[in-house]
Amino acid sequence: MAEDERNHAVMKCVFMGIQLAQVDGLAGYVNPKLSHMLATLVHERVAAGRDIAPDVWSFIDAFPPEVELIAIEAELQSPVDDRRRAAEAALKSRRR
After folding, report:
1. Residue 94 CB neighbours (<10 A)
2. What is the distance between the alpha carbons of residues 33 and 4, in angstroms, rounded to a whole number?
3. Fewer CB atoms near the end CB (10 Å): N or C, the chain?
């Protein structure tokens, strides 16, 4: 399977609520593009005031995309309560 196909399969797992840790061998598929895609998804979910599965962080932090991480952290200052709470929850689940 090509890298783009694997990346999209991982994203599909996240969208479907499948825990990434349950997918055998998935950790070996981490690459910068996947880290970026997942961080972008986290920011989108936080901006919508929604939760994100905590297991995405190990994939994101393998190749930390600075711009997206800054955008997620900026949501901690949002005047919108749901966004701020979602950012707090997402970042709390980040084990750094």
Report:
1. 15
2. 9
3. C
> CB–CB of 86/49 below 8 Å?
yes
| Euclidean distance between CA atoms 36 and 43, whole angstroms | 11
Mean pLDDT of 66-94: 96
pTM of structure: 0.92
The answer to whether 7 and 34 have CB atoms below 8 angstroms apart is yes
Please give the radius of gyration of the chain, using alpha carbons only, rounded to the nearest integer.
Answer: 13
CB 40 within 8 A of CB 68: yes
Q: Tell me how far apart the alpha carbons of residues 47 and 81 are, in angstroms, rounded to a whole number.
A: 11
